[in-house]
Specification:
- The protein is an alpha+beta fold.
- The protein has a single domain, classed as Pseudouridine synthase (2-Layer Sandwich).
- Helix content is 14%, strand content 33%.
- Strands 1, 2, 3, 4, 5, 6, 7, 8, 9, 10 and 11 form an 11-stranded mixed β-sheet that branches.
- A hairpin with a 6-residue loop joins strand 10 and strand 11.
- The longest helix has 12 residues, at 43-54.
- It is globular, with a radius of gyration of 18 Å.
- 31% of the residues are buried.
- Residues 1-8 have low confidence and may be disordered.
- GO terms for molecular function: catalytic activity, acting on RNA; pseudouridine synthase activity; RNA binding.
- InterPro entries: PsdUridine_synth_cat_dom_sf, PsdUridine_synth_RsuA/RluA, RluA_PseudoU_synthase.
- Residues 21-177 form the Pseudouridine synthase RsuA/RluA-like domain.
Length: 237
């Protein structure tokens, strides 16, 4: 079965910035970052198709994937258009100099208005699920994030998250571990969420040093104007 080649999907992806070295876009919700077993059109290949079409490029288009967002998560992402940019941005991710900020709507209210969460996470590759385990368990990796409560009402809270590590499903699992399951999370919150609800997690800000200009680049993306986001005011980040 071959990957869907729906080039029209790329035209629906907002481009926030583009030059010869980087491409910054707003990832749509429910689109895989890269090709997966679903064979649905993914963001990486959609953008390659778009570049090929817009610039009339022959042959294969280079586009480097340096970080990821889960399929149900939308928001700002950066891609590398050259191998030099890919190497430098990957180093920035590894050394935690690529600063990522998220907002989420969760059930309940966190125990503290702000805190650093540290957990050890283990991924079951058979089920593609992640769980909190004891430190030292084989194949477990440390996950660290900072959160800040931005507002609460009607049994829900708006939380800002800054990641220090980039583990699979990290935000969803760590917040669920403190009793704050994400709104719409069917995988880690089926007991409190209804089928069909959209996961309320958005990559809202991204900053990094430009790989060649050495200038600090900052980008912002707002969640869609729909529930549950419309119940809160998203602050300037």
């Amino acid at each position: 079965m071959s990957r869907s080649n729906d080039v029209s999907g790329a035209s629906q992806i907002p481009i926030l910035f583009e030059d010869n070295h980087i491409l910054v876009v707003e990832k749509p919700v429910n689109m895989p970052t890269q090709e997966d077993e679903s064979r649905d059109l993914d963001l990486l290949n959609a953008l390659k198709d778009d570049i090929k079409l817009r610039y009339n490029k022959p042959g294969n288009v280079y586009l480097g994937l340096v970080h990821r967002l889960d399929r149900p998560v939308g928001g700002v992402m950066v891609f590398a258009k050259t191998s030099k940019a890919a190497s430098r941005l990957s180093d920035a991710v590894r050394t935690r100099q690529l600063d990522k900020t998220y907002v989420a709507v969760v059930h309940g209210k966190p125990p503290q208005p702000s805190a650093t969460l540290r957990h050890w996470l283990w991924k079951d590759t058979r089920t593609n699920t992640v769980s909190v385990v004891r430190e030292g368990q084989q194949d477990a990796k440390e996950a660290v994030l900072d959160y800040k409560l931005l507002g609460s009402q009607d049994g829900f809270s708006l939380i800002q998250i800054k990641l220090h590590t980039g583990r699979p499903h990290q935000i969803r699992v760590q917040l669920a571990a403190i009793g704050c399951t994400l709104y719409g999370d069917q995988r880690y919150g089926s007991a409190v969420n209804k089928p069909g609800q959209q996961l309320a997690l958005w990559a809202t800000a991204l900053s990094f040093e430009h790989p060649t200009l050495k200038e600090t680049m900052r980008f912002r993306s707002l969640p869609p104007m729909q529930r549950p986001w419309t119940e809160f005011t998203i602050p300037e980040l």
